[in-house]
Amino acid sequence: MASHRRPKQPSRARVTVLTTAAAAAVVLSANAANAAPSEKLSKGEVKAKVDKLYEEAEQATEKLDGAKEKQQKLQKEISTIQDNVARGQEDLNKLRDGLGSMATAQYRSGGIDPSVQLFLSSDPDDYLDKASTLDQLSSQQVEALKKIQDKQRELAQERAEATDKLKDLSATRTELAKQKSAVQSKLADAQKLLNTLTAKEKAALDAEQAQAASRASSRVDLGNTGSASSRAAAAFAAAQSVIGSPYVYGASGPSSFDCSGLTSWAYAQAGVTIPRTSEAQANAGTRIYSQSDLKVGDLVIFYGDYHHVGLYAGNGQVLHAPHTGAVVRYEAISNMTFEFGVRI
Please, are residues 300 and 341 in contact by the beta-carbon 8 Å criterion? Predict the structure, then answer.
């Protein structure tokens, strides 16, 4: 027989909880609907944040350049060591063949000297440590054994050196990947910020930068008189020839550059080799601490960690590769934190 009992009613406490929750949901929905959207950053605020990100990207870029330079140096050193080891092994084989010829001659004349036989079947280092056996050898055999011992030690040292450098190379490659990732991350963040600007705002920013570069260029023309040296003048002329080339992190010419890539390339065109990174370039010559003493072609180092460098252009201006999204151009030194100049 079917039950006709009434359904159980919810308790007063349960009704209260449900009512309160529903009311809260309505309030939250209303607040969300009425909440003002997050304020859009102004063009100036976006520029300031983007400039900061570009500076951080350039710091990582200089570390990236340093890791690249170290990697190239290590690869050359390892290649040289490996070549030396290969040649050394050939020399060792010849020395052993020579000693084997002595043993063959002894055998034909009546049997191999026990001491030579012992050497041919054991470690010569261990063998030569047994001074008593040397008395049983001819002076020629002793000399041959010592040469073999020296060559074996030399090869062991070179192989150990190669092993250490290979470990260093592996660590350098890891650092390279880390810095590359850091650069790409900063640039991606900068691009996201730029994408929040309208087309009109972006055009206004571009116009401001073009006007600033034009003003700097006109000032250079007024004060571009004497240079630090003929080589500095040649380096500066080379840099002038690539004005308008794009900034590309890790690039050192001839069609794109980062900051230290431009300066090292420019001096190379003048027949002068300077280090690849701005930090190393800061120690590449005589430091000039007063801006009034700078001459055209001097390197100009910026920021406390020396992560940016350009070429002095005269009249308080610098010719440099600024950052991603910009091109090689003139700019007022006062726009950046000047540390000192370097006369190559």
Answer: yes
Q: How many CB atoms lie within 10 A of CB 258?
A: 31
Rounded to a whole number, what is the largest CA-CA distance in the chain? 126
Question: How far from 29 is each of 19, 25, 26, 71, CA to CA, in Å?
Answer: 15, 6, 5, 58
For the stretch 285-304, pLDDT in tens is 999 999 999 999 999 999 99
Reported confidence tier of residue 6, pLDDT bands at 50, 70, 90: very low
Give yes or no: 320 in active site.
yes
Catalytic residue among 4, 307, 320, 323: 320
pTM equals 0.65
CB 326 within 8 A of CB 314: no
Q: What is the CB neighbour count within 10 angstroms for residue 235?
A: 30
Query: Tokens at residue 233, please?
Result: 């003048």
Active-site residue, 323 included: no
Antiparallel, parallel or unpaired: β 338-343 and 299-302: antiparallel
Tens-digit pLDDT profile for residues 211-269? 888 888 887 754 555 777 899 999 999 999 999 999 999 999 999 999 999 999 999 99
> Across all residues in the chain, what is the average pLDDT?
80
In the block, tokens 């007022």 appear at: 332
Strand order in the sheet with 317-320: 286-288, 338-343, 299-302, 308-314, 317-320, 329-332
**Catalytic site includes residue 308:** yes
